[in-house]
Amino acid sequence: MAPDRRRLILDAAISVIAQHGVRGLRVETVAAEAGVAVSLIYYYFGSRNGLVGATLDHANERAARVAEAGLRATLLAELDESARGVSAVWGEIQASAVFQPALQEKVREATAAWVDLVATAAAAEAPEIDARAAAERLTALVDGLAARWLAGALELDRARGLLQSAIDAELSANAPTK
Prior knowledge:
The protein is mainly α.
C-alpha cells in the first residue's frame, strides 16, 4: 500500500506545481489534493525540498517509460497535451534551481538521465552520429519549445513541427559524426 500512497502524493505534487509553480507549492495543499495527512508527506520525503526532488524524479519516470518507443516518440511525447503537467513541473523546478542551489544537483542528475536516455535512442537509430551531442541539442530544444508552448508563446503544432525537423536534421547523413 505504501508505494500507492507515495505515488498518489507525487501525482498530487505534480498537479500542485503545474497549477501554482514551485514557489506556490505548499505541503498542506499537496496533502489535501492527495487526501493524506501532512505528516505522511514528511514521513516519505523528509522535507518540502525532498518532495520537490522526488516529484522531479517521478515526472522523469514518464520519459523512461516512453523511451521504449524510440527517439521520435520519446521526444514528441514531451510536447503533448497529456504531458502538460509534467512539462510544467520540469520547467518550474529547472527555473527554481537557478535560485535554490539545493535543487541544482537534483536537476543536474535528472538532466543527465534524460540526455542518456535520448542518446541511447539516437545511437540505436543513427549509429554514425555523435549521439551524446545530438541528445544534448535535442533535449535542450525540447525544454525550450515546451517552455514557449506552456507560456503561450508558441502553438503546440508549431512546436512539434520544429522538433520533428530538428530530429530529422540530427539523424541525417549531414549531421555531425563521431
